[in-house]
Amino acid sequence: MNIYEEIRKDHDKQRELLDKLVKTSGDTKERDQLFKELKDELAVHSDAEERHFYKPLISNDMMQDKARHGIAEHHEIDELIEQLEETDYDSSAWLKIAKELQHKVEHHLEDEEKSYFQLSGKVFTEKEKQDLAKSYRKHMSKNL
Ligand SMILES: [Fe+2]
Ligand SMILES: [Fe+2]
């Protein structure tokens, strides 16, 4: 396994949770459970990704702007999560913000998979890609 395969697995999980979340309605147990699961999943993933994917890229001239942009998007995602937390589950605004979150996360995952993975693939050695995969997964398992 390399770092890209590990991250992609978690991205697919996020897409699945988002798909399910936007199909929920009102103040239900299902919405509450899915939201909490997604929130944890996103938070731990962003942290693991920043440490074990973006951080080693920040010092590379070709990747610095991309890494900064990716990290800035993590903050935008956090803000939408906060907005959802401040909104009542049964308010009509909740689903609107959840859909905004879905759109934002999907766009972010696509940037990472279609652009950052390819570019960083030329920066990391095969050994680094495998070592990062291990440290990324270790962080995920420890914190989720
Ligand atoms: Fe990310
Ligand atoms: Fe990611």
UniProtKB/TrEMBL annotation:
Gene3D superfamilies in UniProt: nmb1532 protein domain like (1.20.120.520)
Domain called Hemerythrin-like: residue spans: 3-119
Domain of life: Bacteria
CDD domains recorded: Hr-like
One Pfam family linked to the record: Hemerythrin
Protein name (record): Hemerythrin domain-containing protein
Organism whose genome encodes this protein: Polaribacter haliotis
